[in-house]
Amino acid sequence: MKNILRSFYNELEIRVFSSLSVLFLIFFSLSGCKEKSREKEIEPLEVIKEPLKIPVDSAFVFISPEFEKLLIKYKIDPDKNLNGKIRYEHIKNIDSLDIAFYGISKSLKGIEYFTDLKYLKVRGYYSTASINPNIYYYAFPIGVVDNFVPSIDTLDVSNNLKLEYLDCSGTSDGGGYASTIGNLTLGLNVNLKIIISNSSMIKSLDLSELSALENLEISSCYNLTSLSLCKNSVLVKLKSWQLKTISVPSLKAVNPGWETGAATLVQCK
């Protein structure tokens, strides 16, 4: 009798242990699924740029010191004291700017408040007193110079919604190309018809909101290897010899006047 009871209890313990093991595995699996689903739910938030808040005429807007010097020189800023600010009323009706910077690490902070700007030309030149020996982003015959520092790191015209013409090309003195800008940020620039950014070190260019773009010149931009023109159906002139891939709305409607070198044209998806 004792043997029978002992056998019974042993069998019962085995069954209980097996049941608990199964329950533990189910619980662990469900927990893992929840963790995975939670991981899927947690995605990086898209950074949405807030629209520019237009100040009242008498309000001050902040600008970079080097930009302010130019505005004083051009007699746009009546206050000849360098204080890093200018009244909005003095710049809101300016529709044209021709800017030249000498040296590196300059800034056009404040240009976003030139809300009536239609024409913008920016040039960066290396000062003869520059201690940086790398005066070219692309040197002959070496090629791209990785540690080149441009005059302006990022030119952001995404708030200049009336802009029609933009020239931010680099410069050359025969030994190579010196890039004026490192990056170009565009936005809802639906009036922008002409972009000239030759000899620039830009690596990407988003033209998706530029529905009126007619003329694009990006020659000698050796860091830029691919370009999408899927939203630029009215583009008449394109000049670029270094691009490897160009996405176009229709392969049958490519403008024969485009200068694209050996680039491969692909149909937009």
TrEMBL record:
<protein>
    <recommendedName>
        <fullName>Leucine-rich repeat domain-containing protein</fullName>
    </recommendedName>
</protein>
<dbReference type="InterPro" id="IPR032675">
    <property type="entry name" value="LRR_dom_sf"/>
</dbReference>
